[in-house]
Design brief:
The complex is a heterodimer.
Chain A: E1 9-13, E2 18-23, E3 31-38, E4 45-50, E5 55-56, E6 61-64, E7 70-75, E8 84-92, E9 108-113
Parallel strand pairs in A: 1-9
Antiparallel strand pairs in A: 2-7, 3-4, 3-8, 5-6, 6-7, 8-9
Chain B: E1 5-7, E2 10-13, E3 19-24, E4 31-37, E5 44-50, E6 53-56, E7 65-68, E8 75-79, E9 88-95, E10 104-105, E11 109-113
Parallel strand pairs in B: 2-11
Antiparallel strand pairs in B: 1-3, 3-8, 4-5, 4-9, 5-6, 7-8, 9-10, 9-11
Classes of the chains: A mainly beta, B mainly beta.
Chain lengths: 114, 114
Amino acid sequence: DAKTTQPTSMDCAEGRAANLPCNHSTISGNEYVYWYRQIHSQGPQYIIHGLKNNETNEMASLIITEDRKSSTLILPHATLRDTAVYYCIVRWRAGGTSYGKLTFGQGTILTVHP
Amino acid sequence: EAGVVQSPRYKIIEKKQPVAFWCNPISGHNTLYWYRQNLGQGPELLIRYENEEAVDDSQLPKDRFSAERLKGVDSTLKIQPAELGDSAVYLCASSGARSTDTQYFGPGTRLTVL
């Protein structure tokens, strides 16, 4: 599976946009980019995923560069409840033993402050 | 719609004792996963089921860990005997028919081995 690199921690002011970067320079054409977050003492929560095109849902937007080697998760108006660990994951979508597997890294600790 | 249900939420046992965790996936999800999350780390896959069949158990320590998913719905993960190093959060996730479908996680069981 392609590896991802994320900053260890980031801060964001409440009400501002939070932009979380992720590098996945070895991503292959058969891998999606997924984002999950984990609030303290809870299980990981799915946020969004994409392959090539930018994606948006009610939680966030995902911007993937044209060469697919990096992406940015955008929380447009961060709130205190968005404080969490954010995981960027590349996920294999073809056959083999890695099919569908999620491999979590260390993630980015996002702290939203008043 | 109910999410993934896990019980118990917390378990404290002494080393060498057995312990079991239970998971009820989202209705209609035929793929079920067990992950282990050590403190400060991302979750790591232990085993993946498609219906009743364990299709990826390569990361399950088979000397003391076992899992079952009878009837292809609920699943139980067991440790016997538990060791100090087994203290972690055990997470269950489920997804739809395809292994690339989005995985949804339960709240986890926090195990403390004394």
